[in-house]
Amino acid sequence: MATNAYFQCISGCDEKHGLDEVIYRCPKCNNLLEVIHNLDELKKKSADEWKETFENRYKSNEFPYSSGVWGKKEWVLPGIKNEDIVSLGEGATHLFKTAKLDELFNQDVYVKLCGNSHTGSFKDLGMTVLVSQVNAMIKSGRPIKAIACASTGDTSAALAAYAASAGIQCVILLPKNKISLAQLIQPVSNNAIVLSLDTDFDGCMNLVQKLTTEKEIYLANSMNSLRIEGQKTVGIEIIQQLNWQVPDWFVIPGGNLGNVSALGNGITLLYELGMINKMPRIALAQAQKANPLYLSYQNNFEEFHPMQAGKTLASAIQIGNPVSVNKAIRALKKFNGVVEQASEEELANAAALADKSGLLADPHTGVALAALIKLKEKNIISKNESVAVISTANGLKFADFKVKYHEDTLEDINIRYQNKPVEIKADISEIQKIVNKKLEKNK
What we know:
It is a single chain. The protein is globular. The strands form 3 sheets. It has a 6-stranded mixed sheet with strand order 4-5-13-10-11-12, sandwiched between helices. The chain has a 4-stranded parallel sheet with strand order 8-7-6-9, sandwiched between helices. The longest helix has 17 residues, at 123-139. The protein has a domain at 95-119 and 228-407: Rossmann fold, CATH 3.40.50. It is built from 17 helices and 13 strands. Helix 10 (233-241) packs across helix 11. By secondary structure, the chain is α/β, with parallel strands linked by helices.
């Protein structure tokens, strides 16, 4: 077992497991595992030396450091050989910041565009790590035939792309008619075995765990801690892009809840290695129709009850029984975190409001932005605090959502920012009339 990083139970059970073991839960207590890094080894470099290393690698032309994830290799998967890494240029995405966005939200707001990645979502950050580790395991002789996941869309797209690049077969379990067409076609195009099941995501998740009890099929969902290792780089990268200054708040949408613990893990490493001198607060945003963690938060996390998630525009977080709930609660407690919810109307209008600044916000980013608005109204986030919002996917994956919004055909939603195309004759006088009318209205 490599001593620089290993699996260990989040409940503190002493047994350590190698990252090349096919294991997802603690054999003693059945809780989830996490990757533990050797801090003594990492502290052999000073904070300034780490900053210099990361700055030199950022968007480098040298493989694998062109990746925002693998630029932090020693903090992610230190034992892997570069030739075993499967990278598609993930990470190193833009931190969106404009005066118009600040004006619209009356706040110092940054939006991390994780959707500007190879398959269009933040899931690439974790999948490059997991598929790279499996690639190394197969090369070393492990009899792994395929990698499998349950998905609400983005996870399947990421797994299919990275598995195809590595030449590894993958199996995708999707809930039938519950993901966007753009999300469905990605794994189909990348030659995955795609199974469309008459159930919801929680049903798919239950079945994929049964499928992967056979060690020849490797589990790729976020209950596998290798995924968390790649995803944790998003917070590190945001702080690097802010010249190593820490925003007061991070706001992140949550479904299966691996992402919030990943965010916390990355920021914690920065703090423990002396690269930042304060910890931010974290706000976790859920869709009101799939809000089990929000309900638990109302009782200070004393109890958590899974739910049957209702249909929501934020389909990727339509999850009622998140597998990473314990990790999420631990992270939120550590970061003095809060949980907020957003209705369908709130998330749709928040996404459209942000779009007026030049963004194309997906519905899940809409959940996060709606949560920001509500937390400001409750005076939990003050207007003089800086906020980094994690945008998890590319809005182009949800074009149907955008079209229906501006056509005002979304059910039971009061549209506030409609901008419907005006159909007129191809006549210059008619064009001038409409343009002048619109310009006068927009003064």
